[in-house]
Every structure is written in structure tokens, then in C-alpha cells.
Design a protein that fits this description.
Largest sheet: 7 strands, mixed
CATH architecture: 4-Layer Sandwich
Radius of gyration: 15 Å
Shape: globular
Number of helices: 4
Number of strands: 7
CATH topology: Metallo-beta-lactamase, Chain A
Helix content: 25-40%
Strand content: 15-25%
CATH superfamily: Ribonuclease Z/Hydroxyacylglutathione hydrolase-like
Number of domains: 1
Strand order of the largest sheet: 1-2-3-4-5-7-6
Distance between the termini: 33 Å
Oligomer: single chain
Structural class: alpha/beta
Length: 154
Amino acid sequence: MKISFLGAAGEVTGSCFLVETHTERFIVDCGMFQGAGDAARKNRHALDFDVSNLDFVLLTHAHLDHSGLLPRLVAFGYQGPIYCTAATANLLVVMLADAATIQERESEWRKRAGKRYATAVHGETSAVDQSAGATKYAIRQRDRAARAGALHLS
């Protein structure tokens, strides 16, 4: 087994671990980097590998530093399942929508101020299966004109 730390190494945000075994390749969490400094740059360069080869995503909880880059993952072509508890899925609906609203407002401000990096990613999810206390979600990319960063869990 090989584990690569793609975030939250030397800091507390951006949780993302790539796990590779002889039979599977998956990530645990898909977190957004937060805070001052180079968080925005890290988010723009996150997930710099072929995400279409992932078998699944295991999400530990809904906090943005563990889930905030799920829309970016979808934008990069991931279409597989996301495993999380039903409670986490319910919270993601609210938290990612709220984060999308904040990102939209910041993007508008950056455009007016002439700043760079005024765009965000977009995606949608839909329920596939439910068993053993965990919910399995399949992700598919949605209309890129949709709300910035928003995922719809149903």
C-alpha cells in the first residue's frame, strides 16, 4: 500500500490522501486549503493527477477543509462514487452551497477590482445506493454555468 499526502501536510487544511493498493486507487477527503498566504494558489493547483483513474472517494466529514474541492474533482473528470455518512451528505448540501455563494461574491469582487483568478469550479452529484450506514454517491459534471462550486446531493 502506498499513501501520498496531497494536502494537510505541514498544515491543518486541505485534507487529501491518495491511497494506492494492488487493486484500488482512492482518495480520503478532498479538502480546500483555507486561510491567508498561498491557500488560493494551492487550491488552484490541487488535484494535479489523473482523477479519472480513482475508484472512489472516502469522505470523513463535511467541513470544507475535507470536502471543499469536490467540485474541482468533478470538473477534472471524476465520475465515480463518494462514500460518506448520510449526515455528512446532508451537511454537504448546505456547506457547499454556502461556500459557492461566498466564492461567487468573491469572484465578483475580484472582477470589479481587476484581480486575477475570478473563477471557480462547478458540479453536481446524485444518490446511487445506500447501505450499512454509509451512503454511496456518484458524481457527474453539471452545466458549467451553474453556481460556482455547488454540488447537488439528492
